[in-house]
Amino acid sequence: MTNPAKGELVWGEVADPVPGDGEVLVRVAATAVNRADLLQVGGYYPPPQGAPAWPGLECSGTVMRGAGEWQPGDEVCALLSGGGYAELAAVPGAQLLPVPSGVDVVTAAGLPEVACTVWSNLTQVAGLRSGETVLIHGGGSGVGTFAVQYAKALGARVVATARAVKHDRLRELGADECIDYTVDDFTGVNADVVLDIMGASYLGRNVQALARGGRLVVIGLQGGTRAELDLGALLAKRGTVAATALRSRPAAEKAEIVAGVRRDMWPLVESGAIRPVIDRVVPLTEAATAHRLVAANDHVGKVLLKVGP
After folding, report:
1. CATH of the domain at 72
2. pTM recorded for the entire structure
3. Does residue 3 surpass a pLDDT of 60?
4. What range defines the domain where residue 123 resides?
């Protein structure tokens, strides 16, 4: 699957990837649609240097050529810098995870990107602790549905913003309170941690929503890139603002994050405390349709693309 023109997805033949030192060749069973894929196809988010030109930030499948602990036949899922919309992917061994027990190999395609995003931000950056309150924007998204469950498993009080039609599902996943961002105000939440996908349009209100010593972590820019920050309001809250991206991190940092996910999150997935939330699975050949679905924000959880019959 390639995007030769801005906004266009077409099928094309490319050379099979050749694994480098420490890399594993994976026959892809499924991949998942992330907003970064939509931005890349639209011409706004070019892949990092050395990454394949086609989209796909995660995949699942079977090891064809192993390295390190990974052997041919192992069922795995992987965090990628790109290239998941394909039949084969070459992946650094340190960015692979075993498919969790109780999860099928196709469903596992929806885990790596959200798990790594949530762990790196709620645990590594924000240090969310039991008894704290976390405000999760975009609660119905892939990241949001995973973050709700992980925060609840940590013992946090979870507040999620989403359209009202998604509230029942979010409560089933563990949200203590849901706020309809289209009509209701979230500035009174008094959150110890805010996980934000919007960026500029929410900056001022997110600072208002912080508790004393609160931590705002920006992971998306759907609401723009530039806004005025009231440093006086932030100082009065003794708050901090962090902004992170996953795709552009060095390989060593990604390896650390994947290791943290495997240690802290995989037992929660295998016990059922965290469930992969899959809105639907469509053939990879219908990736353009899947992109339109994600762009419309009508889904809950992840939209997967299945490779092959």
Report:
1. 3.90.180.10
2. 0.96
3. no
4. 118-243
